[in-house]
Amino acid sequence: MTTPPHPPEHPSAETRTRDAADGTARADDRPDRADASRLLRWRRAVLGLRPRMLAAFVATAAVSALATSALTYQAATGSTLDLTQDTALDELRRRVDVLAPALPFPPTQAELDRLALRLSGTGGFRDWRVLARYGAAHSEWTAAVTVPAALQDTVGSGHGAFQRFTADGHSWLAVGVPVTHTAHTTAATAARAGDLSGLTVYALLPLDREQEATSTLLAAATGAGAFAAVLAAGLALLATRQVLRPVRALGDAAQSLAQGRLDTRLAVSGHDELAQLSKTFNHTARTLQGTIEELRAVESQGRRFAADVSHELRTPLAAMAAVTDILDEDAEHLPADTATALRMISNETGRLTRLVNDLIEISRMDAGAAPLRTEDVDAAEAVRATLDLRGWSDRVELDLPAALPVRLDARRFDVIVANLAGNALRHGRPPVRLTLTTRGPQPESDLVLTVTDRGPGIPPAELPHLFDRFYKADRARTRSEGSGLGLAIAQENARLHGGFIEAANAPGSGAVFTPVLPRGPLTKDAP
């Protein structure tokens, strides 16, 4: 009534670590991880701290340069034009004060022309043009532009004035002064004296020279702004490099620590905030390393204790199993109560024997001493043999190919099939169905075994823990026929092959367990 112990194992050079098996089992996820890595690098290049700091520096410099240039341009333009118009108005007043007293009143057309000519030309201020007006008469005027009417009204009322305007595609400055008809009063004091003669004098000069000066100033300010932006970009690159170098080192160290390299530390230099951050990281890493080493030591002691106890119990359990087998043969000749107690002892001895064998097996896997002895096997025939050996052939529906050659460890494949099929028969509902197929192109195809039942399924919260050791989805079921290690051992055996086992709920009802194992390279004479 007891289950025979697992056959003895022999050392093998083909032992595989759990990490290597996990990497192989997830080979299909590598393209997705590569795409995610490229997306992450692109986001860092576009939205990372360096481009953001660079953009902030350049934007600040550009806005500052633009504001400075605008204010400088506005101030310089206003100052230049104010100086020009004040100088022109003063010069016109001075010259009128000199020439007006010699002018007879009322002046004739010829005298108005002569006055305008003497105020204009080489003797005038720059290249201005002068218009002398007395009543309806005025000096000869051949220019394409005329004096603005608003300025004429202001000057005619006895006030010297100026006005800037645009005509014929150019900027112009017009200045005008009234003249008194009293010989003892100058034009500069005419506004206060009030005895206007009716003679007004106007001068027009183009502002092309000032416009060119302001344009040159604007170009210089624009160049200075561009230089400031380039300089800011250079300073930003330098600053971000100085700042991001320790930040990048911190990120690399954190990633290294996450990958299990607990001795990772940062070089600390300086006394700024980044140096303090590096010190904090190193302290955290040391604390984490110490804690994990303690946990590993405790876990190692626990595993060693379980392995030692299991080995110590194996011999007396074998003796007890032999005794209970002998007594089972005479159970029918014993009293009913004694026979019942004997069968209970026999069942518990068998259960304890399976638990000890499972503990020994998983201890070897933890120690990396579980060999993988691969050979060419017909997977379909191996599945049939597993079910026949345990008397499950009439309880499991099979969907198998006629033959499916693979290369694997036959004993460990038997454990995988037996644990999954037995789990479906114990905890699921019929019909239990087992399907065997392949996936992927040759010669790198995988062997896919699917075990389904029609039971209530697995609560979603329990799915991530199904392969944990001694885990039972039904907490109320404190004792069961299994040891609580069957699924964990099946998963470890799949990992030794470089594969994995997935658990899910079937559409409708029932659970689905899917081991995926590499078919492996077959020998040339394999079918």
Keywords:
12 helices; 12 strands; alpha+beta; about 525 residues; five-stranded antiparallel β-sheet; disordered N terminus; five-stranded mixed β-sheet
Quick structural summary:
This protein is of the alpha+beta class and about 525 residues long. Helix content is about 55%, strand content about 15%.
Q: What this model shows, in words?
A:
It is a single chain. The chain is α+β, with helices and mostly antiparallel strands and 527 residues long. The chain is rod-shaped, with a radius of gyration of 51 Å. Residues 1-30 and 183-193 have low confidence and may be disordered. Helix 1 crosses helix 12, helix 7 runs parallel beside helix 8 (273-329) and helix 8 packs antiparallel against helix 9. A hairpin with a 2-residue loop joins strand 1 and strand 2. The chain is built from twelve helices and twelve strands. The protein is 53% helix and 15% strand.
Fold topology:
Blueprint (H helix, E strand, L loop, with lengths): L17 H8 L4 H18 L1 H51 L9 H11 L9 E6 L2 E2 L10 H8 L4 E7 L2 E11 L9 H4 L2 E11 L1 H51 L14 H57 L6 H31 L8 E4 H11 L6 E4 L5 E4 L1 H18 L4 E8 L6 E7 L33 H11 L3 E6 L5 E8 L9
Parallel strand pairs: 7-9
Antiparallel strand pairs: 1-2, 1-5, 3-4, 4-5, 6-8, 9-10, 10-12, 11-12
